[in-house]
Amino acid sequence: METEKRGRGRSREPVVVTGASGFLGTKLVERLAAREPVYSLSRRPGSLGSESLVADLTKGEEVVRALKTVSFSCCIHAAALADPDLCEKSPESAWRINVEGTRNLVEICRARRRKLVFLSTDYVFDGRKNGLYTEEDPVCPVQVYGETKAAAERLVLELPDSLVVRLPFLFGYTAPAEKPDFVTDTARRLWMGQPHAYDHRQLRTPLLREEAAEAILLLAGSPSSGIYHLVPSESATKYELARALAQCLGKPMELVLEKTAEAQPGCARRPMSMRLSNDKFLQAVSGRFRFRPIRDAIVQIAERFRSTKESPGDRLDSRQAQPKT
């Protein structure tokens, strides 16, 4: 085991976070590190504010060795192969990372009697329901990514007191050192006056990543167990998000085009209506959390983007690294 210290210990028992250097994981670590010690478990050193435990999650022996001498109260499993298209093209890798990696953590948490919080996806559903999906609805994925997450959910739910938190499409401002997300990449295109086509068919419930991190930690620190849908009540397409961002940045609406082409062969199917009920989550947090209106979040990101005064051409060539959802 290789360990790199990145933060000072505190009195509370540490939390282990997988995927700590990812889009959501960095925000989880930021919030945890302010009040308790954090271990990041991954193949490379994790975020500032955490102590890194280096292991390949798909190799059970490495994970056991990394956590053998570590005391922790809870493991938040955010690591995943989360690009639906890549999962479709490399199903064996998707199953190895998303299912076998989760299985290794389940076995350790069972042996250590520790809580496991598994971050899942709304893609465990097919998007055909006329209404909101609830936690009681049976899963019905239509793509490899959704299938692997549904399978991993079943493993996690075998553990007493475990949590499965289903997340929607996450967005947020990404700094230059980070991989660009959908909203930041869109802001850069708009800023340089580059027209681009966006999907206006798939209905999602976009959630700011900072809000997702805050809500996940609320659930993780509570007696809650089972499945929870962490989704806002508002829904939007990527086309609508792009238009809202263009308005906030004062850019022409003509730059935001509606995508008309079908998905390329080999790409994963996207369910069309991903609307989930959040009643169970809101009852669990009982007034301690409120979802921010999507419009307010877009305004905040637009202001932050404008304030950085970054070069318009930055990262436009990094589309390949952009998370796909």
SSE layout:
Blueprint: E1 2-4, E2 15-18, H1 25-33, E3 38-42, E4 51-54, H2 60-67, E5 74-77, H3 84-89, H4 91-112, E6 115-121, H5 144-156, E7 163-167, E8 170-171, H6 182-191, E9 196-198, E10 207-208, H7 209-220, E11 226-229, H8 238-249, E12 256-258, H9 279-285, H10 294-308
Parallel strand pairs: 2-3, 2-5, 3-4, 5-6, 6-7, 7-11, 8-10, 9-12
Antiparallel strand pairs: 1-4
Helix pairs in contact: 1-7, 4-5, 6-8, 8-10
Number of alpha- plus pi-helical segments: 10
Helix content: 25-40%
Average pLDDT metric: 90
Instruction: Name the quaternary structure.
Output: single chain
User: Which stretches are poorly predicted, pLDDT < 50 over at least 5 residues?
Assistant: 1-10, 314-322
Count of domain modules: 2
Strands side by side in the biggest sheet: 1-4-3-2-5-6-7-11
* β-sheet strand percentage: 5-15%
The SS-based structural class is alpha/beta
**Largest sheet descriptor:** 8 strands, mixed
N to C succession of SSEs: EEHEEHEHHEHEEHEEHEHEHH
Q: What name does the CATH topology of the largest domain carry?
A: Rossmann fold
How many DSSP E strands?
Answer: 12
**What's the architecture of the largest domain in CATH terms?**
3-Layer(aba) Sandwich
> What distance lies between the first and last C-alpha atoms, to the nearest angstrom?
33 Å
CATH top level assignment of the largest domain: Alpha Beta
CATH superfamily of the largest domain: NAD(P)-binding Rossmann-like Domain
**Quick one: overall form?**
globular
Work out the radius of gyration: 19 Å
